[in-house]
Amino acid sequence: MKTSSMLRSLTNFLVKLLASSAVAPLPATTSFGHQLTSQLNTIQSQTDSQNANGLLHALVDAATTTQQITLNSLSDFTTTTCQPSDRKIIDDYLDFNVKMLDTCNQLTEKIDTIRNYEESLKVVSRLLESGQPHPTTLARAKHLLDSCHNATETKRPFKRFFSQKLAQSSSSDSKLAEILGGSKAVTSLVCEILGTALSFKSKRGLRPLLQQTRSVSSSTYWSCSLQQLQKQIREHQKSGSSMMLTELHQTVKAAHYLRNQIKGRNTTSDDLEELKRRCEELEKEIKPFEEKVKEMYKHLISVRMALLGILSSQF
After folding, report:
1. Which domain holds residue 74?
2. N or C: which end of the chain has fewer CB within 10 A?
3. Which residues of 139-169 are buried (b: 16+ CB within 10 A; e: fewer)?
């Protein structure tokens, strides 16, 4: 066989080999993908240096920012023609959106529960501040502390409305699928984490959600950054770090200690001062989260209205 013939045969063999290989295409880059990836990478770079509260604030801010990026990206679809398959993608997202709005309401209820818990502890402090309270007053304080303790022991299931169709909606080549898939993935993750942080018991992990959102198609530009962030959060939990809001954890701990001290009749002024200080810190910290949840709710509404507008004009 001549040299030229051998080269042609080798070339043909290599072409057939490459054609038969399942080579995944590189993720397409879009403005939405760049912006979402950028904010996810920023959180990753700060995760190790932040405490639990700092990470929580960054994540909730990221969820709200993602809604804003989503809203801005949807403006392109008011002047361009959507694909026929986009109708189902929008309908699926609208269903998800309603569930996320409901989740925001649940988060607000959790915050209200924490506020009521905090107010009860303040009443306990006032009842005991005389130093030698009347037995009736002491009994009332003990009853309130028992009620607070029972509140921390009661299981309040946090409904998990998180999308089970992330992989399906993200596997489409549609630009709209990438945008709404990113919005779903980030919002789901953040709401799950925040729901855990605002619970009196936060030992349960986030693994079910993280395994679920890990299935998001790797064909999206932002998916690798999201998966890496999930991995960092899992490592954070494996290290023994609680996702419970720090001030809530410390307040529950102080209330539990005071309750035991009253039982043993060993209550001191230092115990009361510790409880007061923890309540003040909790009150100061919970307000920003309340505002952030309301802000996320407003942005979810805005995205919903934009999609309804697209449906009315395009389909």
Report:
1. 52-314
2. N
3. ebbbebbeebbebeeeeeebeebbbeebbbb
| Sequential DSSP letters for 136-166 | HHHHHHHHHHHHHHHHHHS---------S-H
Handedness of CA 187, 189, 192, 193 (dihedral sign): negative
Answer yes or no: are the C-beta atoms of 61 and 192 closer than 8 Å.
no
| Residue the block writes with tokens 């005071």 | 258
* Rounded-to-integer distance, Cα 270 and Cα 292, Å: 34
Q: What are phi and psi of 234, to 5 degrees?
A: -65, -40
CA dist list (Å): 198 to 143, 201, 230, 242: 24, 9, 19, 11
Q: What is the biggest distance separating any 2 CA atoms in the chain, rounded to whole angstroms? A: 110
| Cβ-based neighbour number of residue 14 at 10 Å | 10
Is residue 283 in a domain? yes
- What is d(CA 48, CA 44) in angstroms, rounded to the nearest whole number? 8
Q: Summarize pLDDT for 182-208 with one digit per residue, the tens.
A: 999 999 999 988 998 898 875 555 544
| CA dihedral sign, ordered 112, 116, 122, 125 | negative
36 domain residue, yes or no: no
pLDDT-wise least confident of 29-33, 147-151, 210-214? 210-214
* Number of domain units in the chain: 1
Alpha-helix runs per DSSP H in the chain:
3-20, 31-47, 52-74, 86-128, 135-153, 166-170, 175-197, 207-213, 223-238, 246-263, 269-314
Q: How far apart are CA 214 and CA 195, in angstroms?
A: 19
Q: What is the pLDDT of residues 11-66, one digit of tens each?
A: 454 444 444 444 445 455 788 999 999 999 988 887 766 677 888 899 999 999 99
pTM value? Answer: 0.81
The single residue listed with the structure tokens 């529960």 is 113
Residue 32 resides in a domain? no
